Amino acid sequence: MGASFSSGTSAEAAAPSSGMYKLEIELKRGHNLAIRDRGGTSDPYVKFKLAGKEVFRSKTIHKNLNPVWDEKITLVVDSLSDPLYVKVFDYDFGLQDDFMGSAFLYLESLEQQRTIPVTLVLKDHQLPNEDLGCLELAVTLTPKNSPIEEQRDPAQGEVKTYRWKPYVNKTMLLRRSWKRSTKQQSMRLTEVHRKSQLWRGIVSITLIEGRNLTPMDPNGLSDPYAKFRLGPQKYKSKTMAKTLSPQWREQFDLHLYEETGGVLEITVWDKDTGRRDDFIGRCQLDLSTLAKEKTHHLELPLEESRGILNLLVTLTASAAVSIADLSLTPLEDPEERREILKRYSLRKSFFNLKDVGIVQVKVLRAEGLMAADVTGKSDPFCVLELNNDRLQTHTIYKNLNPEWNKVFTFNVKDVHSVLEVSVFDEDRDRSADFLGKVAIPLLNVRNGVQKAYVLKNKELTGSTKGVIFLEIEVIYNTIKAAIKTVVPAEQKYIEEEPKVSKQLLQQNFNRVKRCIMVLLSYGTYINTCFEWESSQRSIIAFILFVVVVWNFELYMLPLGLVLLLVWNYFFSSSREMSEASMETMFDWEDEEEDKEERDSEHKGFMDKLYAIQEVFISVQSALDEVASFGERLKNTFNWTVPFLSSLAIAALCLATFLLYLIPLRYLVLAWGVNKFTKKLRDPYRIDNNELLDFLSRVPSDVQMMQYYDLKMDPGQSPNKRRRTNPS
């Protein structure tokens, strides 16, 4: 059943199926494991499960199909009837891990008090014929028959002695010992899980430029971009078009999980649309050779081709990043809280500008989650993401109302960041199933208030089943947060590829349409003042216009915006309206999704194509208008139509002359008086915009192509042309 042993077992030496046993496992290595990454490798790690519970998770070996772990674990088991379930996964940062195979180790067949080499052949029941490689282990099974057991309590750090007295019921004693052992295993596992997630430092990288890169395109140039990899973390730079000396000027941070720093791998690629990108070159940087808390200016030559990358690299220690139980909440310790408040006080505003603050998240529990398993239960765990920082809870098995009771602390580098909390169902042989998600902007957090958040779908456009209870507290320095607001925001290293969606296209089109309609409504309102539809309104507007223009100074422009913001703060109901509009949008999304489902049941492919055609026609018409406006402006200055360009010169010369002789306020005042009185002077006059009317006479590039005279072929006579083209 997927396990082969290098040494035989005898019936006499086989272990009985009940009693207390110590199981020692050494995870040695893997051979010829499955490929799960695009580069032809994988990032494998191993999980052990016993009686449905995860009891061990190995470290991740990156980019290796023959990994060497050399890790040891000791378990206490009370029954050999449950096999040890071994699973291998490929780690994907920011994505769901890929399944690489599994196997069972049957404990009843093991020989006791002897180390047995074991080879587990990995299988996938969905692909039974696929070769997924194997794992090498060394297993020792020992009965725990000693009358005195000494165990170390990890919570207290001291050795406790438990004596087995003759008058104590043996069954009860075994049950208590098993509870102690499973609790200690759980604590050890939680500690291992916690340490595997926490980073020990941050490496800040500024990709400045590349020089003299190898040309990969037929035009003698390239479209280069760079990929960075540090352990499980990946980053991709922007693509610079048609250059051999790209100026990227990008800054990003990666986490350091190893004390030594690790090796930063850099590859440079040439972007090719419609086919596979071309490899330009690679280089590596051993971070252990760099001094910490110092910025290093490095020029790294590419190994497999010509070219140099110019980088700035800084290694810094990580501040408050932690995972703890509720009893060890950092901000509830008065001394630590004072220290944190002091660190982010106004006096420290200009020290370490990148460290804006901290956020502490208590993940308490969830209720009424979706049942993802066939048993009507789920195995939920929670993932917290703040930009590119990612931590997760342990798994609560077979429970729709899990209680995690964990406290997570993140560094805040931008107070405008959004905390994303996702709930997943851990699956046995597949990627975790999505159960729900919430997104919480840090500036919307009410400190220290426990709140129930309704879980939403992946797109955060509608609700799903269940709620999650969180308590969040954010502490930050206001001045650092203000400075950070006017610098580029941190981009996510890994984002999902955009997909074509009729619903999303319709939604975005409606959003643009709403914005345009708001502007048009304002324009219509202003135009009614010129049209004298309401005499009282037009008179007030005219007097206000004359007073403002006559007394206008430049400082009044920002002052007017300040007054508008203050007015909206005290008197506007836009905040309440925005909440109502959000509810309306969610209702609209649900209606659209329901309509999409109903349509999909009754409509065929052509029907859907016709349905989306409407939106595309509107989009292409809007794009045509924008493009035509820009092309007409360009063609005016290109003398495409000399008469119109001459008119433009005459108009601009007249404007220059008037602006030179007459102050601007008088000209604006004259324009306003003319605009206000135009309807009074000629009630039946058709309103127009002279500038737009002028530009409408200038042909666009498409019209120029349509008006272009084709040259007649000299070898073809008019008579032949007439016969071949009678129309």
TrEMBL record:
C2 domain mapped to chain residues: 6-120, 179-300, 342-456
One annotated GO molecular function: calcium ion binding
UniProt entry keywords in alphabetical sequence: Calcium, Membrane, Metal-binding, Repeat, Transmembrane, Transmembrane helix
A Pfam family that the UniProt record links to this protein: C2
Membrane topology (UniProt): Multi-pass membrane protein
CC annotations in GO: synaptic vesicle membrane
InterPro entries: C2_dom, C2_domain_sf
Residues passing through the membrane, by range: 539-567, 641-662
Major location (coarse): membrane
Gene Ontology BP annotations: regulation of neurotransmitter secretion
Location of this chain's protein in the cell: Membrane
Family: Belongs to the MCTP family.
Protein name listed in UniProt: Multiple C2 domains, transmembrane 1b
Organism whose genome encodes this protein: Cyprinodon variegatus (Sheepshead minnow)
Lineage: Eukaryota, Metazoa, Chordata, Craniata, Vertebrata
